[in-house]
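tl;dr need the bound structure. longer version: we got a ligand (3'-phosphate-adenosine-5'-diphosphate) that a collaborator sent over and nobodys looked at where it sits. i said id run it. heres the input, straight from their email, havent touched it
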Amino acid sequence: MAPNPPYKICFVPKSREEEEEDEKIYKRCKEIVATTLPTTKGRSGKPIYQYQGFWYDSGVHGVGPLALQEHFKARPSDILLASIPKCGTTCLKSLAFAVMNRKSHPPSVQLQQQHPLHIFNSHDLVPRMEWILYNNNLNGDRISNLDILPSPRLFSTHMPYTSLPQSVALSGSRIVYICRNTKDNLISWWHFINKIRSNNSLEPIKLEEAFEMFCKGKSSLGPFWEHVLGYWKASLERPQNVLFLKYGEMVAEPALHLIRIAEFIGCSFSLMEEKQGVVDQIIKLCSFENLSNLEVNKTGTCGIGIPNNAFFRQGKVGDSANYLTSEMLEQLDQITKQKWHGSGLTL
Ligand code: PAP
């Protein structure tokens, strides 16, 4: 039998009073979603709702984003990996997990078979808060108890910067945000939703339809441009707390970026480690080639049942050129230029 993912330890039994408190929170959140938020048909087959300007898939998130805002208490030592879907989250989670846990789980080739990344998909090692930890669809009416986790805690989120609970900024938790060029993001998202649709026995959606949704901001956690811009501005205003990474740059120069990530999250590599090749070992361990060929990622499922192989497609930069017409490319360039005008952000 497959082992339990590590995040399950947060679901400790609760007292009757705590259970009742959880129930109240979920009831309130469900009411808000059902009665006050705009809802429309989502492309993965379930409705999507708009909350604080961004679109959430109700089938995936339930009322997780609202419950998270109400319940999560950040610690100064927390590390949050943030992204809009399909920008390199899986890769960033693997790298951050491997860096933070390299003493207890050395990444050396001889020991790689026992490494948690060989046993679990990285989404099970670094749980997404609004999806796994605060999602009533997944855990009945129970909210996980994150207080029992030792520091530093490592979580992920797809929520926009402006919707993060206030305690994240106030406590000084560190956020690593990863983004990707608009066109590759769209194509990766389109392939992903069609994979999910096919698993749910739904017809694939055409690229034209996905393109239109994306441009209107109705992709998962869209609008894409506002999501990226929010974290970009935060990284300029609070560089010691928000590190802004670009997928294309990370794929091109993995060692440089891994060292930056390690420094930022307070786990710098020593000279000795660099000499011993630890940086390269982590890069190999977390490479697309290695992770996508592991049995766990070829056959398993994570979280609420998404197949692990849906998170691995090509892992390349520029693949969108094989799909988008010149008109589509031009339209995306126009929107990007207009939305990010004056921000200094380019991808
Ligand atoms: P998520 O937000 O749903 O978790 P995310 O991991 O951000 O998805 O995006 C998936 C993309 O990252 C896929 O890109 P593609 O569709 O263009 O191929 C996936 O292939 C790519 N990816 C997954 N793991 C890695 C990795 N280890 N290195 C580089 N790219 C990766």
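gonna send this back to them w/ a short note. The longest strand covers residues 174-179.
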